[in-house]
Amino acid sequence: MSRIEVTAINENSKEYLIKITDEIIVGSSDIIRQITDDLIFKGTKDVQVYINSRGGNVFEASEIVNQLKRFNNVTLLIGSVSASASTYIMAHFKSKAFKSSQFMIHSPKMTTSGDYITIENDLKLLKNITLDYVNAYASKLNKSNVEIEAMFKNGDNWFNSDEALQIGLLDEIIENSTLDNKTEVKALVSDVKVDYWQQITSKWTFEDWAEKDPEGLKNMMVNDPKRFEAISTAYYGK
Fold it and tell me: What is this structure's pTM?
């Protein structure tokens, strides 16, 4: 399940923090687009984006990058982990993270089925996506495409903060001693929040949940059985 919300750091100066936590799934970029539309309408030009995610859907990550580029300046704050599609987002913006943060880069993956024509077409799509990832990482890490492709052959490439800083994926490490700095505190603590994910999913039907966030549907069955019963009854009938 994806969790996306926007926090007002300072509404008077139009400072906001967008939070992306958990998996990037179908629908995540729609929420980022809605947030971006709202903030640009309010006159916001610069944003901070907190990411704590092991990755997810490559198309959603690409569109999240497209939407965030509408701002004049974007700074990423990385939580405990940024992996796969999340590091693809990092490849397009300046970022800082904690000493304990972990990072992972690997080649995009795809699941497909069907006849050989379908599989060949999907393979072409995967090659296109992989080239986009290679170009993005090569630009951020100041390496050649050949070097990134060689990295991909190693499978999952994990880095701690020092290593990520050294290779150029990360731009700054937030030391524990600076957490009381007002800029960092403003970025991590605030009272004004809007949960766009809740707004979007509140309108979802059972079929929407099954298609877009099946894991979230399972969690709802356990944690919110009344809501699960309501949407399942509406879908299957009494």
Answer: 0.79
